[in-house]
Structures are given as structure tokens and as C-alpha cells.
Model the fold of this input.
Amino acid sequence: MHDTVNEAAAGHVGRRLSWPWFLAVVVVYAGIIQGIGLLIGVDPGDSDSQFPTTESLVRNALIPIGASIVFAVAVVTWLGWWGEVLHYRAPVRRWVRWVPISMLAVALFGLNYWHLADQNASLVLCLLVLGVFVGVGEELMFRGIGVQVFKRAGFTEGKVALYSSAVFGLVHVSNAIGQGAQAFAQAVVVSTSGYLFYLCLRVGGVLLLPMLVHGLWDTSLISNLVGAEPQVSVGMFLVIVLQVALIIVLITRRRAIEPAHPLPATAPAAAS
Done:
């Protein structure tokens, strides 16, 4: 009861979800993706590609991730957090706008258009749908629910960014089921990406922006890996170079992210 009163006094609506319970939700979320993938997934065989065919992309990725979106939507609906999940009011300094701008530009440029032109139309279409699914599902779970969980727990914006990004990275360790030890390196890289997507949320003030950036970012990377014969383009290296550059910039300018004059805390409404 005391926690519920504190939530109401802070202006929050809906049910309470503590961060340990959020971790449990994340475990279920990852279990849905990996479990369904194991049940209906197809073996790519000797192909160097994870998605050599349309069927492999649909069964190994689209269906499992689609199911995880349904789960995330159900969690947000049960919590009653849609308003706060979709809109996040925590402005940043103007220079941070270059994070989503540069990521969108490089992702668009980095798409392996020539390689995709050689693929079946159905495979390309499913790749685009996969980008949408990844952007919607992962952002709803981590920049939506996750950010709200740590924000409501009373952490500073810096810790909200750190903890939500760390959980985002750790959940990708579950990919070790299919990818082996490289999933641990992937988890570290994904954590830094999570921080960038968090900044996109701060810049736009709506979850739609990190969904868009994340979806296009992953589509650009995966565009090199589909089809029977994956083909890495220069654009993929540009995506990697930009991520490294942004990490360096954010490390050096991390104290210049918050606005010089932060917004005052919203006072609770007086009881009628």
C-alpha cells in the first residue's frame, strides 16, 4: 500500500512493477523468443546465413518476435502504463539530436541495396517486416517498460539509461542457444546500442522515434546477412564506425547531456 501511495504522489498511473519483477518479465520475454524459435525454427544447414530463405526468416525470427510483441503489449496493458510508455518527458541538450539523425542517415545509406536486389521479393518484404517487429518489440520492452520501471524506482536519468541498457544487453545472451559464445560479445555491443536508443527516446519524447531508429538500424545490418550467400557491404562498416564514434562522443560529453535548466518536478494534484 505504501508503494502504491508513493506512485500516486509522484504522478504515476497504473500498477506498480518493481525492477526485480521486471527482470522476471524479461526472462519470460526472452523465453518466448527462444522457446518458439526452438519449437518451429528451421536449420539453415550449411549456409553461412542465418536467414537463407523466406521460410527460415519467418520461422526463426518473425513468428517468435511477433509473439514477444503480443506479450509486451499485454504487460503494458495490464500495468496501465500506455500513456507514460509512449511519451517520455525528459529533454536533453540540442547536440544530442545528432544521435538519431546520424543513426537514421547511416542506416539508410548502409542498407545493402545491391544484395537485396538479388533476393526474392518475399524475403526482402519479410526483412522489412522483421525490422518493424524488432523496433516495436524491443523498444516497447526496454525503452518502454524498462525505462519506466527504473524511473519509477527513483533512479536518476543516468542510472535509468545504464540499467535499462544493461538489461537490454544481457537478454541477448540468450542468443547463445543458437549462436554460441559470440552472443556474449553481442550483448556488450547491444548494451551500447540500447543507450543510444534511450537517447533517441529522450530527444523525441515519444517511443516511436527509438522504434524507428532501432528498426532501420537492425534492418541495415541484417540486409547483409540474408539470402543463401551473405554479402557484407561498405555500409555495414559505416554502421559499426558510427556506433563506435557515438560511444566515444557520449563518453567525452556525458556530463553535457542533461539540459542546463532541467524541468521542475511536477507537483501532485491537490485532492478535491
